[in-house]
Predict the structure.
Amino acid sequence: MAYGDRAACRSCGREIIQIGGGHRQRQYCDDTCKQRAYLERKEQQHSQALRALWAGYLPATQEMLVGLTRQYSEEFASRFAAVIDAEKAQSSHLATGDVSLVRLGSQLDYPELHVKHPGGGHDVIVREGKANWLHFADVAEGRLIRAVEHAARAILRGEESLP
């Protein structure tokens, strides 16, 4: 490298005039740019480590968790990820429950069912027919689905009769 050769700063892009005579090639225009580049590399490594930690999530969710780490803390983001995991597990459980409910309805030929609401109040009515059972499985909350499944199983075991 000869004196007067020009290069661009690796941080800000400003032009650097190189010093000849056996000096190492300058990569940054000053110590501020050198420190900024170091901190950016360190932050990038930390972000990659966090993304690896949350590799099971979609990229948008990973970005959200990385952002939560920056804004709050890694512990907060981890707790948020645990909430997401619990939500996914519950959704998965409810989805399999919906399939179970429709299967029970099929075994009973989709009758009209009257079930006591688990929270009290009015009875829950599942109208006769496959379409009505499918609709109920799609829109009802988990505890209602479980209550209807329980009643359907009781009918199949002969413990209860259809209305």
